[in-house]
Amino acid sequence: MSTEYGISFLKEKCIQCHGCEVACKSWRGVESGVRWRRVDNIWHGSYPMVTSASASIACMHCVEPACVEVCPEGAIEKRALDGIVVVDSDACSGCQVCLDACPFEVPQFGVDGKMQKCDLCISAIDMDSETPPCVATCPTKALLFGQMESEEKAGEERSMRSDRS
Fold it and tell me: ω before 72 within 30° of 0 (cis)?
């Protein structure tokens, strides 16, 4: 059992204000058209029995990330220290195999064609200084940041997968 960083999403608290998206784009300078975190409305059922739920989606920093396994360039790795999945943009060829492998459709591709995604604001974590801006901005505390046991993190992944199906 290992401890890794992660962000938990409490769908019942999300009011779809998109503050987390805006904070991420602003703090990290994410280019137009690219969304490292996105708020989606997931619809279930068919008329007249339709329900919806919010989903704030970003890289889950999976316990066993499919993107790491399929990258032909070895440009994606999971840090042993804290479980954060990082991309070496210099090594990325832009082939988009990672996008096909990701069950959450997280990988984004900018104008340079290279993969980019949430890295949990790794520079702040490495300095033990901050909570990621997406979490700090959420007015209802629907996003929670911290260390998780690998079983807890795997549970978050399963929950997000079931919400999307």
Answer: no
